[in-house]
Amino acid sequence: MIGKIYVESLSKEYRKKLCERALTKGTIDRLAREVSEKFLRHRKAFRRAVILYTAAALLMAMTFLSPAASAGSVKAAVISLGCLAAMGIVIFTTIYYAVVTRIPRQFAKCLKAGYPELEMLYGYEMIISGKAAAERPSQQLPFSMQIEDAFKLENSGNIVVTGFVHGLIVKGRSVFITDKNDPHRGQIAAVVGRIETEGGKPAIQAADCHAALEIVDGKSYDLRAGMYLYRERSL
Fold first, then answer.
1. CA–CA separation, 231 vs 70, rounded Å?
2. Phi and psi of 88, rounded to 5°?
3. Alpha helix stretches (DSSP H) within 20-172
């Protein structure tokens, strides 16, 4: 009978919801902490295994390379230990990539697909550094919105974008623009000139609802569906 090695993964449900932008910021914050804490535990166990393996290899080296060993035995021992070291490097490198960092990589990949504006808070580097596991007063973005549609205005360089507002956005505030399909595009800032909530009602602010935002000089930013608007600070 052939044995099976179980490799833990991030659940399919969480991967799907992350990619489809179907989780709340609070859930993402909690999930990021759990993934980071699990990675730190796995990395600690991995380091112990490497130390034990290295200690065992050194013990073997001291045994086989003792002065009492014959020249032929020493040569054979050196070759064997070299093979053992090479095998250890291959095995531990594979384990680190396939097991230890598997869940952080899955989380980071799905987060980038659904919430690219949150990479700075919960991305791969934050996960493996342990910063995502640290208790924080609040690491949720004050505002983020995926653009569902964009409309050009006649005789104006402004563009109206619609989508669901997560958090709070206030008229006159600046927002950053990001495009997950163009990760190399630099960070761009724009100003929200006007807000309309559901029913086309003019508003000073919008919070956790569908809304239309008029972005000043939006045409120059090539705003379109699928892009994201967000703020890093409340004020």
1. 71
2. -65, -45
3. 25-64, 71-95, 102-114, 119-122, 124-129
CB 104 within 8 A of CB 127: yes
Cα 202 to Cα 212: distance, rounded to the nearest angstrom: 9
DSSP code per residue over 41-75: HHHHHHHHHHHHHHHHHHHHHHHHTSTTS-HHHHH
Distance (Å, whole) CA 86 – CA 12: 35
Residue 230 burial by Cβ neighbours in a 10 Å radius (0-12, 13-18, 19+): buried
Please give the structure tokens belonging to residue 44: 């600690």
The string of pLDDT tens digits covering residues 20-55 is: 888 877 788 888 888 999 899 999 999 998 899 888
Would the pTM count as exceeding 0.90? no
pLDDT tens, position by position, 194-216: 999 988 889 999 988 899 999 99
